[in-house]
Design goal:
2 domains, 41% helix, 411 residues, 15 strands, seven-stranded antiparallel beta sheet, alpha+beta, 8 helices, binds zinc ion
Length: 411
Amino acid sequence: MRNVVKVRIYPTTAQKEALLQAFGCARWWWNRALNLNNETYKATGKGLSRQGYNDLLPALKQEFPWLKNCYSQVLQSVSLNLSRAFINFFEGRAKYPNFKSKHGKQSIQYPQSVKLLNRVIKLPKIGEVEAKLHRTFDGVLKTVTVSMTCTGKYYAALLFDDGLPIETASTNGKALGIDLGLTHFAITSDGSKFDNPKHLLKREKNLKRKQQKLSRKVKGSVSHAKARKIVARVHERIINTRKDFQHKLSRKLVNENQVIIVENLAVKNMVKNHNLAKAISDCGWSEFTRQLKYKSEKEGKIYLEIGRFFPSSKTCHVCLNQIGSLPLEVRSWTCKACQTKHDRDINAAKNIRDEGLRLLRQSSVQVLALGTSATVSGESVRPKRGRKTSVEASVREAGSPHYIGTPISVG
Ligand SMILES: [Zn+2]
């Protein structure tokens, strides 16, 4: 199983210079390869492969000799990551790859040849960089990603493989549906609502103020550069606060449940309005679902995304009666068919859970004594060994009580 450990590193001035050059080369190659891919696609209808990118590198090194200063495997990692980014895009998991800016966070990846020594990390062509390695690590060191934040801090993300097999997924336990909302960060099918921490909102307001200040400065001036750094620092604090909150919440939910079911974000966004609040929650949601997924997989639990649209808010989870419209401001409603009183969000979370369980029941994983939903009958036996823990729900399949008409395709 693979684990990532992120440590702070402290390069010397000379090492910073060398890293900056490496970041520049990697970024240059990413942008160049991306552009090349776009043009090749326009001309031939086909993109470039990872090998296709790598084959271009020797000639480019002749044309641009400074490219030779960069460790060659760093450039090859860029080729790999770009081709992966395209695969993720075509399979609907990610947006179209973007060009990289020299102003954002910078990073490079070493697929091998990095050594961990006592309190230093030895990077090819950079040397021994001081690091906070305050624990021993299990497993073989695989890739190392070195990054620099906008505030000038350096980190190394170390990927270890401990050689142990991934836990076999089991559905034996409690299932939880989660609705990601705008009024609350997350609402669960067992009736809990979780809000973003209050001081996060305060910090976001502070960020807005600092950003306005920055926009009034003359570009290229000293005060502009200063204001920019201040904005980056506030931004960094917001990201840390948000991540900390999400890590605690995802840890709690994964600890307490065996099956976690959420709506696929691409599907969720298709039915919501575009506004700022959504944009903010979006970036929070995708990080949160990423955490739920990897934490579940690590422990042999099941993380499931419902990959198609169904009206989770407008369906009564008790009798499956659907109501015509439910404006956003209506927070609770009573089902006309069975007279059940619903909290809008909790009802939605319960529908998400039930739909996920229905899909799981259809897939080869057998559901054992979940006891959480009337729609689950105690069918038998063991999950297949070694199956992936996240189950992709089929978009085309009908037969759901929640199913309405033609499914909307994703992407
Ligand atoms: Zn009802």
